[in-house]
Amino acid sequence: MWVGRGQTESVEWELTLTGREGQQLTLSYEELLSLSDVETTGGFFSSVGVVYGPYTVRGIRLETLLDLVGGITPSDVLLVAASDGYSAVFDYRQLHGEIDTFETGTLRLVPQGAIEFLLIVEQDGAPLAESDGKPLRLAVTSPDGLLTEGHWWVKWVNHLEVRTLTQANGAAR
To answer: Which member of 20, 55, 84, 140 has the lowest number of beta carbons within 10 Å of its beta carbon?
Structure first.
C-alpha cells in the first residue's frame, strides 16, 4: 500500500478497465493507490538514442489491474489508451516479457531479464511530473536495470481494454 509515499495532493483521474467480455470497472486515482504496489527500476531510450533512467519507480502490476476484469489470456491483446488520444496494442507474449531489452551504458541488446509491466505513479521517490505522464504511466521494469524502447512507456493512461483475437482473420474484436 502507498502509506505516506510522495502523494501530497489530490489527483482527479480515473482509469477505466474493460475486460474481453465487455465488463467495465472504473477506478479513481485514490482507489488505484489502495491496490498493492511494487517498487523496482525501469528505463527507456528514445528513437534517437536518448536514454531516460533507469529510474526507481512505484506502481501497480498490470496483471493485478487486468485480473479485476477477467485477466488476459494468450489469445488476447491489450489496448492501452491515453487522455491525449494516443493508444498502443500489446499482445500476451509481449506483456509477459517477450520484448527486447538493452544494456544501460551501451544500448547493446541483451537477453531478456525478468521484466514486468507496471502502471506507475512515482518516479525516483516523487509523484510523476506532468511531462512524465502524470498521474499514470505504463512502464516496463526490470530489477536488472535494463532499458526498453520508449514506445512501451505510454503517458497519461486512462483506459486499459482486453480484446480477444478471432482465429479466422486475426483481427481484434
So the answer is: 84
- Helix ranges restricted to H, 27-165: 29-33, 62-67, 92-95
Q: Which amino acid is at 10?
A: S
- Centre a 10 Å sphere on the Cβ of residue 93 and count the other Cβ atoms it contains: 10
Phi first, then psi: what are they for 150, rounded to 5°? -65, -25
Element (H, E) at 89: strand 87-91
Is the distance from CB of 43 to CB of 119 less than 8 angstroms?
Answer: no
d(CA 139, CA 115): 10
For residue 45, give every residue at least 6 positions away whose Cβ sits within 8 Å of its Cβ, in sequence order, or none.
51, 52, 102, 107, 147, 149, 150
Domain assignment of residue 129, yes or no = yes
pTM comes to 0.88
- Give CA–CA dist 81/5, Å, rounded: 26
DSSP secondary structure of 94-106: HHTT-S-EE-TTT
Domain count, the chain: 1
pLDDT digits (tens, 9 = 90+) for 83-97: 999 999 999 999 998
Determine, yes or no, domain membership for 171.
no
